[in-house]
Amino acid sequence: MKQQVGLDFEFYVQAMFEDREIPVFETPTTNDYGADLVLYRHGKVAVIQCKYHSAPIGIHAVQEVVGAIKHYRADGGIVISNQVFTRQAVVLAQSNHVLLIDGNMLQGIMNSVSDELLFIDEFLKELRRDHSVQQMTQPVPQIICRRRWMKKPMRVKLRQIKHLGP
């Protein structure tokens, strides 16, 4: 049951972005390398980790996202939770291009009449690319999505969005 609640929370977060016309894509349910969703906006890629727990979210969630940033070659990461974050999680997030959205912020987003998530846009615009296309020697990981309309391999979508070419 606990695992199902976590998946429901992931779908809730995904719907929040899709309702605001921000493209997000699911990663596999297992072996997701620390990312539940991948977000594309303003030419940037951010991995998202969704955490639904009864206690404050610790450093492990941020560590997962930091690993996912490297694996998916993302520009940054976002951890979204129904809870607050520990001080250690906040410190690690600040030094690793990770945005933390706690339960209070999430509730504010859902109650907002605005369709825009301006603070996420600002976060993405502040990210810098630590790698260039020329430095990418490994193939872009494929993301297998559970939705019918997402059957196309994610590698192709990444190329289209980032204009990486064939």
UniProtKB/TrEMBL annotation:
SUPFAM superfamilies named in the record: Restriction endonuclease-like
GO molecular function, one term: DNA binding
Restriction endonuclease type IV Mrr domain sequence ranges: 6-109
GO biological process, one term: DNA restriction-modification system
Residues in the signal sequence: none
Protein name, entry field: Restriction endonuclease type IV Mrr domain-containing protein
Natural source organism: Flavonifractor plautii (Fusobacterium plautii)
Species classification: Bacteria, Bacillati, Bacillota, Clostridia, Eubacteriales
